[in-house]
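Students often ask why we bother encoding 3D structure as a string. The short answer is that it lets us treat folding as translation between two languages. Here is a chain of 284 residues written in the first language.
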Amino acid sequence: MANPVIEAPSAGPSVTWESGELLARQASSRHKRRRLAFLVAGWVTLLLVWQVAAYYLPFGTLPNPLEVGEEMAAIIAGGGFFSDFVTSVSKTIGGFLVATVVGAPVGYLMGRYDYARAFFRDGVTVAGTIPALVYAVLSLIIFGLSDLGPVLAVALVSTPYVALNVAEGIRGVDQRLVTMSQAFGRSPQRIRRDVYLPTIVPYLFAAVRMSFAVAWKVEALTEVFGGTNGVGFQIRSEYQLFNITGVLAWMALFVVFMLLVERLVLRKLENRVLAWRPEERAGK
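And here it is in the second language, the structure alphabet:
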């Protein structure tokens, strides 16, 4: 009896590198479209809830989104919007610079040396638990009605975030890399630059993004209490005039500007600086 002939199955089309890359791009594009759809749906839901609340609350209690939008357009057309925002932004950036200059070295020492961690840990922890309102009031007591008050308040709020995150970054350094660098004769300066610094940078960005919203709040709060210019000063002025629409309009402009800075500046800068990481390359 003749042996049956078994035919080999026909080979399917092989997936080339180009087709695999095309499939990956299509999947990434679908993911971005879904994420954008959910983002738009979230904002639409927020505006609908706002509109319903404005309709059912007593007249004049809560302006609707359209009224606030018209007030925002009037503020921008008035010409003083940009000067007030530049003032607030400069104070916030100044406070962040002070927090980085002070907090990064403290965090490095805390993560590098046990004695320094024992020396700084309780003070940094206590500084991070003090309410932002206390910092705002304290800054006004020290500097009075000047631009240095908001800068000091932002610095006091942001410094603990920077110090704690940098310390965690230093403690997360793979000591085998340090030992290997020392075995190959690398100087301490090269080790700090090539091993410690790349590890610190992601934690530093995390600290900046975490404390960004808090810093904006305490900066505006300080201006509300005792500022002579800036967004917080304008919110206080509208409140004194019993113009709730104006208060919400300045607040909405404040939120929009904060989101633009976070997404178009901080996130883009972080992606560019950390482009060497595999997860950043995969996200592109």
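Translate back mentally: The two ends are 62 Å apart (CA to CA). Keep this in mind for the problem set.
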